[in-house]
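Posting this for the archive.
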Amino acid sequence: MNIARRLAGIALSVTAAVVLTAALSSPSYAVTPDEIKARGTLIVGVLTDFPPYAGMDDKQNPAGYDVDVSNLMAQNLGVKLELIPVTGPNRIPYLLTNRIDMLVATLGVTAERAKQIAFSNPYSTLDIMVMAPKRLDIKGPADLAKYIIGVTRAGSQDTLVSAIAPQGTKILRYDDDSVSMQAVISGQIEVLGGSNIHLATLIKRRPDLNVEEKFPLRAQVNSVGLRKADTALLQWTNAFIDKILADGRLSKIHEKWFGTPIKSMPPMPQL
């Protein structure tokens, strides 16, 4: 990794740490659907480095599945939508410091996160896995000790890989998905903990690497993230998700970005 990239990574980590400190020291306040309507704007945190869930279009505007869901949510509230780009490490601190109303940011439901925030009913899914070039002999967690593994910091893959990797395994943590995937392409890492989206992107961009799934980690459901105090907004969001799932609008958004419709959504995991 060159010096400029290392310094950029350090800066991002420091920024995330500062925001997290503020989140822990600054009390959050409840926001209701009526307050959002009175304000006239719904403020949503989205990732911008994880297409097709959320990336940037040719005009450098956020675009993707999460963005379309956010737009539909704002339309149902009868307000404008303001999108705030977030990263894996800073997305929960942004929510807890009231910079945004909610997260529609491919946020996996975990027990650790549930200590800090509330989750809506699931609105999307991901398959989390360990992937690597076909030439590498990796059949299970015990084999990881032989390689350098990369993950996106604070993502579900970070937690899952850290939990199963043998003691002493070298794990490099990157501040966003695009950098972690580039690390595979550049040879900085040999193995990547990621999702089926990472795998599809690597296969498309660099088919010569022959990256494949080595073994699964978890089938993940993603939910809208809200502050625990936002009980009225959580109730509204759950009703909204149930409605667009039942009437087919969520399925149409999924087909637009992933090529397949949604027939049903897995239940909320038991934490």
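Confidence is low (pLDDT under 50) at residues 1-26. The chain has ten helices and ten strands.
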